[in-house]
């Protein structure tokens, strides 16, 4: 596999796998006992969540500049608004819980609304990049596209809570891996058929 393909593979697979690993420690509920871990875990996740948008953008732009721009805009919206969810419901809520819950409902409400905007944008970016792959690799990429889009939707529903949120990250990584394999196989077949 050429170096750019390995970099693309890393950009698509490493962020969801790292997030899944951190997500295995996500407490079920924000309690006084879990508050410090809750807050600190979301601080660790803060630089990881935006990286989810990089892989789909790199993939889409390598196939079609227009889809690359669409995926870039959707990825940017996701990174901004989903980071707001992480900051409010993760870092701020954990900090407020340590300080005995004043304002916790307000923070969770704001975080949920902003996170939903970001999550919908991430689903759109995933779908746009997957559409590019299907256009090039054909229907053999469809299972991977469906798994990645399903994982993105589950991420919107479950965040990174164990087990469903962690499994959403694994689904995203597996879907991208499937699509990359179909792209690689399609490119190899196309180059063999050239005179």
UniProtKB/TrEMBL annotation:
Organism name: Aeromicrobium yanjiei
Top-level taxonomic group: Bacteria
Q: Which parts pass through the membrane?
A: 43-60, 72-96, 161-183
Keyword annotations of the record: Membrane, Transmembrane, Transmembrane helix
Taxonomic lineage per UniProt? Bacteria, Bacillati, Actinomycetota, Actinomycetes, Propionibacteriales
Q: What protein does this entry describe? A: DUF4386 family protein
């Amino acid at each position: 596999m050429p170096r750019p393909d390995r970099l693309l593979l890393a950009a698509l697979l490493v962020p969801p796998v790292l997030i899944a690993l951190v997500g295995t420690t996500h407490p079920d509920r924000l309690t006084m006992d879990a508050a410090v871990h809750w807050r600190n875990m979301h601080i660790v996740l803060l630089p990881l969540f935006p990286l989810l948008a990089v892989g789909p953008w790199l993939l889409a732009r390598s196939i079609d500049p227009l889809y690359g721009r669409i995926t870039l805009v959707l990825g940017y919206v996701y990174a901004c608004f989903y980071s707001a969810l992480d900051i409010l419901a993760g870092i701020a809520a954990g900090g407020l819980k340590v300080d005995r819950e004043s304002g916790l409902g307000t923070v969770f409400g704001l975080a949920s609304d902003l996170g939903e905007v970001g999550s919908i944008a991430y689903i759109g970016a995933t779908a746009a990049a997957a559409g590019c792959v299907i256009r090039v690799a054909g229907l053999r990429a469809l299972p991977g596209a469906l798994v990645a889009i399903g994982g993105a939707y589950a991420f919107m529903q479950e965040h990174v809570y164990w087990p469903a949120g962690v499994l959403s990250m694994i689904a995203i990584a597996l879907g991208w891996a499937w699509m990359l394999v179909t792209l690689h196989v399609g490119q190899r077949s196309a180059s063999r058929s050239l005179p």
